[in-house]
Design goal:
With about 450 residues, this protein is mainly α. Among the domains are: about 15-35 and about 45-65; about 80-145, 2-Layer Sandwich (Herpes Virus-1); about 170-220 and about 225-340, Alpha Horseshoe (Leucine-rich Repeat Variant), CATH 1.25.10. It is about 70% helix and about 0% strand. The protein has a three-stranded antiparallel β-sheet with strand order 2-1-3, with helices on both faces. The longest helix is centred in the N-terminal third of the chain and has 32 residues, at about 40-70. The N and C termini lie far apart (about 85 Å). It is an enzyme of class 2 (transferase).
């Protein structure tokens, strides 16, 4: 049987809730401290709620400790045990196949992206969990006959804190997404707020393959996004962002057929907040390599690059983060180069906009021959050398010299510029002595090549 200590990882429901609460609390406290006088009262109130919820979980676990220890000493019938945990079921629920499991453990199975019954391996028509009141009643009677109290508090914290009332409200909001535009707007606004504030609400979307399509109902029937009210579009896109934060949702969200096209179109239209949140959603989803490939194939890189070129301050960081994450796989680097990323990124770097993030992207793209050719055409060499001279950031210097090394290997016409830089400022030599270990290697390699060229010229 599971122990009751808060640090016990064998109780997935409570541990998931505790971990999520701590993360949310850490984020809120940081926001409050960093914002000083400008922090919102809403943030403070939300932090108080998280603290209270954390305290309540601890109290509930302590209250159950005596009963659990007693259960540990007893041998319960095999049919009372969850097929997954092999422990006495506290909240037995049925899958679509009719098999019964303890809710926390089957929920963890489903949240991991599985869509089959663990026992029968049948594909599930849906992932809604139905309480098995008969089995729970028999287990409760067995416990009572032995003087053991099976706490009802498990109902209050199942599914990472989801109550039946919360689930019912969730389903009613999804139903409203297929009603009139005013009802859709109201429901979308509430879904946005709830998925922001309640991690458990995000998890609910993983229970049914129909939940996300229902959320996207306003965009069905071949409607153009331009015909959708901007507020409704923004709320739906932001809800997708909130959902994608939940690790167990990333695969489900990205693989729902309408989602990536919807996000891609949102990058081109709507308010700047909508476009920014669409970029942030793509960044969050791209944490999975399979999603990186899916997003790249969808054509999302081009509108991301276009939004980067526009240079709106609100969107720049999220867009750059999304492009960087997507380009971590080789095929997306080719797509980014084809879609004009090199010229756009270099222009922003020359304007000294988000240099850190954009240099990191450019360093990845520099493995592509076409990228090297374009860098030479738009004056990348003097720009990168000037950053090495001016910057105090070791990582930026490292990325600059890595890009210059790729240029040096592939474009001999740029050796003269590097040689002149070295003669005038000693920029590369200085980096070979004082840079990061990687920067030293790249700088030394460039110097060796430049010296060989000089020696060849002298001997000829």
């Amino acid at each position: 049987m599971a122990k009751t200590d808060v640090n016990d990882s064998s109780d997935p429901t409570v541990m998931a809730k505790v971990t999520e609460l701590k993360k949310e609390l850490q984020r809120l406290v940081k926001a409050i401290v960093d914002d000083d006088e400008d922090c919102s009262i809403e943030s403070i109130d939300e932090a108080k709620e998280k603290l209270c919820a954390l305290k309540e979980l601890k109290q509930r676990r302590n209250q159950r400790s005596l009963s659990v220890k007693l259960l540990d000493s007893l041998t319960c019938p095999e049919e009372f045990r969850c097929p997954l945990s092999k422990e006495l079921m506290r909240d037995p629920v049925m899958l679509a196949t009719g098999q019964t499991y303890d809710r926390p453990f089957i929920q963890k199975w489903l949240n991991a992206g599985n869509r089959t019954c663990p026992l029968t391996q049948q594909v599930l028509l849906h992932t809604i969990l139905t309480p098995n009141h008969l089995v729970r009643g028999v287990i409760s009677q067995w416990c009572r006959s032995r003087g053991i109290e099976l706490s009802d508090s498990v109902h209050d914290i199942n599914d990472e804190g989801v109550t039946d009332a919360v689930r019912d409200h969730f389903l009613s909001l999804l139903e409203k997404m297929s009603l009139t535009p005013p009802e859709q707007k109201k429901a979308a606004k509430e879904l946005r707020l709830l998925t922001k504030r309640m991690p458990s609400f995000r998890a609910l979307f993983g229970e049914s393959i129909d939940a996300i399509p229902q959320l996207l109902n306003p965009f069905s029937e071949n409607k153009s996004q331009t015909s959708i009210h901007p507020d409704l579009q923004e709320d739906v896109i932001t809800t997708l962002l909130n959902l994608s934060i939940h690790d167990s949702n990333k695969k489900l969200v990205a693989e729902t057929p309408k989602v990536i096209p919807l996000l891609t179109e949102a990058l081109r239209s709507g308010t700047i907040e909508t476009r920014t949140n669409a970029a942030a959603t793509l960044f969050t989803l791209s944490a999975l390599d399979s999603n990186k490939a899916l997003i790249g194939k969808s054509g999302a890189l081009k509108p991301l690059i276009d939004l980067l070129e526009e240079g709106h301050p609100l969107a720049m960081k999220d867009v750059a983060s999304a492009i960087f994450s997507l380009c971590m796989i080789h095929e997306n680097r080719s797509r980014a180069v084809r879609d004009g990323a090199v010229r756009v990124i270099l222009k922003k770097i020359m304007d000294r906009m988000h240099v850190d993030e954009l240099l990191a992207i450019l360093a990845m793209l520099s493995s592509h021959p076409k990228a090297i050719e374009e860098m030479g055409e738009v004056g990348a060499v003097p720009c990168l050398l000037s950053i090495i001279r001016e910057s105090s950031c070791g990582r930026n210097k490292e990325n600059c010299i890595a890009i210059l090394h790729s240029i040096c290997l592939n474009d001999r016409t740029k050796w003269k510029e590097m040689r002149e830089e070295e003669n005038t400022y000693g920029t590369i030599s200085d980096l070979a002595k004082n840079g990061t270990s990687r920067a030293k290697r790249k700088a030394s390699s460039i110097l060796e090549r430049l010296n060989r060229v000089v020696n060849i010229m002298h001997t000829s």
